[in-house]
């Protein structure tokens, strides 16, 4: 180890940073530190053409592949907008859809009202009467849903069958896989590769990319209905007076099945196109529509129990739009696969506005998407999230999957069901908690974000998670405040693997980070990863290839801006600023602790800087208290 007195320019940079109260990446200090090993911030980035460009590469991925130091600011801007109280669900959906490369000019034209539904609403406004209001909103919403089905009718039966029956093979997991012989596992792998080639051929003939953009009109119809319910304080009395609770209690209309019920404890079974429940402790046993109808469920209060009786339920859209909006109570949500805010070739939104809630799902759940938008929003309460795989802010091909929890002491757990066959006999894959995922080497991935607004939170994952990514995708986890615990095993806590980008950003609190390896700011194989902690007395613990490690031409950074911290790295040779050589050029590892009295086990030293025995690896600790 080579350790030197800290250069004066680094001390001055640290002084400027300590005076700043806002969120920022210390670009000047990063640049000056890299200068010590003969490079600068212009070297932090990659070409976008290491492999052939597939048709599903997101422009935002290529943008940050070239200039990855802009990634934390991008994640913070996205998180700020998603948490903004004045932003409607429809506006949040629009923002996420734009991340997939869509805008009003290039999309299929259903972000605003179609001519038929728009004319219907104009006619309704002209002849509005009190008792008729709900009826008009119900019919307009059902018309929007029917219009969405018509939009999808351009796909012939062969194409729909290909997408419906075979696409899920990319995401197949079974608990018994860990017991299969190698020959059988190899056969399954070859089947997935054959499906990938078939899907590639289909996508070249009929581009499925626009399917990620559909659904705007249904979301807008839901928003109009929800807005009307919010601004009608005498709703229950009005519906009783107009006898609409009897008229709409459970009725099949030409446009769909509708139920409007009062404050009793109700039970719903099967599939409904639209449910409006005014309150009570209700039970929902919902299944999906076999002909892919959309569904909207609005529950205005009560401690409810929601059970998915099939896949694609409880705020899930599969070639459809699924929205579940619960306004109050301590609720239970139990979904299977593709549930709880999941959009697959569609839009899935689950919003819970109040209460201490419990969410349980299997895979592709709790803010997950592929060829669409998946969004789970919890506004308040102490909540618990449990999932097996591809969950809690997960984006697959052409997908934007986001979990937003605005407040409360929350617990996130993902994994411990599907074994990690490739690496360990006693660990499980998670791919969750702000995870972007592509299908290597065929299809670029999507965007997965987990945003937590406040509270002392617990994050638990095993293999892959907590602001991580794989294959031309973006994964991000941003926590605004609280004393948080991040527990993982491998490829976690700011980890990017194989040509992708990932970041974990914690803005405040005294936090604990624990992982075995390839974690805590580790970029592997032409990938960029950053763990950024902005304030608090934090503890970091890892074994190897972590805490600012670049591997196989990757870039890994760990930056702690403030606080008295502890950095434990059990293996000195590839931590605390490590960059190994590969393909005749190197990797970059940058470790920065920019304030406080800190303790180290490993390469690092308090109030100093060091150049590790690697290609381009460096660390610096700037201790303002000792300096003064």
Structural class: alpha/beta
Helix amount:
10-25%
**Whole-angstrom Rg:** 25 Å
| Estimated share of beta-strand residues | 25-35%
- CA(first)-CA(last) distance: 27 Å
On the 0 to 100 scale, the average pLDDT is: 88
Per DSSP E runs of 2 or more residues, the count of β-strands stands at: 47
Number of helices: 13
- Contiguous low-pLDDT stretches (5 residues minimum) are 15-21, 104-118, 120-129
Largest sheet: 17 strands, mixed
Q: What general form does the structure show?
A: globular
Task: Tell me the layout of helices and strands.
Elements: E1 2-4, H1 8-18, H2 27-35, H3 59-66, H4 71-83, H5 89-99, H6 115-126, H7 133-152, H8 157-166, H9 182-205, H10 216-230, H11 235-241, H12 244-247, E2 251-253, E3 256-261, E4 267-270, E5 274-277, E6 283-286, E7 295-299, E8 305-308, E9 316-318, E10 321-326, E11 332-334, E12 342-344, E13 347-352, E14 358-360, E15 363-365, E16 368-370, E17 372-378, E18 384-387, E19 389-391, E20 394-395, E21 399-405, E22 411-414, E23 429-432, E24 435-437, E25 447-452, E26 458-461, E27 463-465, E28 468-470, E29 474-479, E30 485-487, E31 490-492, E32 495-497, E33 501-506, E34 512-514, E35 517-519, E36 522-524, E37 528-533, E38 539-542, E39 544-546, E40 549-551, E41 555-560, E42 566-569, E43 578-579, E44 588-593, E45 599-601, E46 609-611, E47 616-621, H13 624-627
Parallel strand pairs: 3-5, 4-6, 5-7, 6-8, 7-10, 8-11, 9-12, 10-13, 11-14, 12-16, 13-17, 14-18, 15-19, 16-20, 17-21, 18-22, 20-24, 21-25, 22-26, 23-27, 24-28, 25-29, 26-30, 27-31, 28-32, 29-33, 30-34, 32-36, 33-37, 34-38, 35-39, 36-40, 37-41, 38-42, 40-43, 41-44, 42-45, 44-47
Antiparallel strand pairs: 1-46, 2-3, 46-47
